[in-house]
Specification:
The protein is α/β, with parallel strands linked by helices and 442 residues long. The chain is built from 13 helices and 13 strands.
């Protein structure tokens, strides 16, 4: 009898160290190590200044707030917190989430519209599971969140990037790309966007752009997945209301407590139209039974007891100071490079001259005890070599200045090599020792 099943053939030998290599499902080919995650082990060493991972500064959260919330939770809801829960999440925290979303202009939702998740990444995974078939297309900003790109790839979908400018996603580029893909008989399932302080670019989509993007998606019957982890962490001016505040039927909205409370609690939420919400609950129950009731009750008690708005304001002050420190250090050491000072979020997107490759420079940077994330992590199509994401959320202002000084050593060393062996002309180097960017970098 002819055997065609890979597992029946037994493990492949001589080609892979994993004896089960031939037995994995085809979709596992989309699983790849995140460049951000790969940096965590190195960046966590105390002698390394980490400009890499976007880890919130949780030390700014007073311990007594969590301790009080924990004791109250165990005293009043201990048996419930330690028990299984429903796939939608406990009603109490879903009511609290309504107050948070109201700050983003979302005032037409009910607690029954919300699904609690194990972080917003879990919500993104559920949406992808529900919508994506192999070969489908997801539209995303250029650049876009590395975790989202990895999730779409894991479900065997292709990410196609849409160009941005200083005002956010460009509506005409969205429409043109969508028409081109459909003319090629590609199936485009949804637009994934981070309108508030895009990760990694830091850009904020204007109110006018939000309306224009929404109009394009309505006209083209394209679902919007709006990811908003940073919206309350603004530093100069409050961002426009969420896209979801303008439309309840064509937007799936993702939120999280990771940035405004703590990523360790792993509590996120999804606000979705009724039919999508029902399928999400079933998907949650089939994969994890229920999100952690313990963590939900803990966050619920924190929101009841603490002045959480004041705590968010305290976070803003801390991150604003750090953003300013990183921006000042970049101005000192890289006056000819290009970046935008973000109004919120955790990141500065530093654009490099085309002669420099951020990914190739990373080992030298680590040797100099500074880490960053290469721009290639934020593209699905190989772009981003000439950019790097610099996070200012984790390190103190003093350490940020030290990190940029070390980064300057790496970049100037690379420029010296290019000048000596690569034919880089001396006249292209300003007095600061930094190469002038080519005309097409803006």
């Amino acid at each position: 009898m002819l055997v065609t099943n890979n597992a029946a053939r037994g493990p492949e030998t001589g080609r892979n160290l994993d004896p089960w290599y031939s037995s994995y499902a085809d979709r596992t080919k989309g699983l790849a190590a995140s460049e951000v995650r790969a940096l965590f082990a190195v960046a966590s060493r105390p002698e390394v200044v980490s400009l890499a991972g976007g880890s919130p500064f949780v030390k700014a959260l007073p311990e007594e707030l969590i301790d009080s919330a924990f004791r109250s939770m165990m005293r009043e809801h201990g048996p419930e917190a330690l028990q299984y829960g429903g796939g939608q999440g406990i009603p109490q925290i879903r009511e609290q989430i309504l107050d948070i979303m109201a700050l983003e202009g979302i005032t037409d939702a009910s607690a029954d519209d919300i699904v609690t998740t194990t972080g917003s990444q879990h919500g993104l995974d559920i949406v992808s599971k529900l919508f994506l078939n192999p070969g489908d297309v997801v539209l995303a900003e250029s650049p876009s969140y590395v975790g989202a790109i990895g999730t779409f790839r894991a479900y065997e979908a292709d990410t196609v990037h849409i160009e941005m400018d200083e005002h956010g996603l460009i509506p005409s580029a969205l429409e043109e790309t969508l028409h081109r893909l459909r003319s090629e008989c590609r199936v485009v399932k949804f637009l994934y966007t981070i309108p508030n302080f895009n990760n990694p670019a830091g850009s904020m989509m204007t109110a006018e752009r939000r309306r224009e993007i929404l109009e394009v998606c309505r006209r083209e019957h394209l679902l919007i997945v709006e990811d908003n982890p940073y919206g309350l962490l603004y530093y100069d001016e409050q961002p426009p209301h969420a896209i979801r505040s303008l439309d309840s039927e064509n937007v799936v909205y993702l939120g999280s407590f990771s940035k405004i409370l703590s990523p360790g609690v792993r509590v996120g939420y999804v606000l979705a139209p009724h039919a999508i919400r029902e399928k999400m609950i079933l998907a949650v129950e089939s994969s994890i039974l229920s999100p952690s009731t313990f963590n939900q009750w803990l966050v619920n008690e924190y929101l009841k007891q603490a002045d959480w708005k004041a705590q968010i304001a305290a976070y803003r002050d801390i991150y604003r100071e750090r953003r300013d420190a990183l921006d000042a250090a970049l101005r000192e050491h890289f006056p000819q490079f290009v970046w935008e000072k973000p109004n919120g979020g955790f990141f500065i997107w530093l654009q490099l001259p085309e002669q420099l490759d951020a990914k190739q420079m990373l080992p030298r940077a680590v040797k100099e005890l500074v880490a960053y994330t290469p721009g290639t992590a934020f593209y699905a199509d190989g772009r981003g070599q000439h950019a790097m994401r610099l996070a200012f959320c984790t390190e103190t202002p003093e350490r940020l200045a030290t990190g940029v000084r070390r980064l300057a050593t790496v970049i100037n060393g690379e420029l010296d090599l290019l000048e000596t062996f690569g034919g880089l002309p001396m006249r292209s180097r300003p007095e600061s020792g930094v190469i002038m960017p080519p005309p097409d970098i803006n």
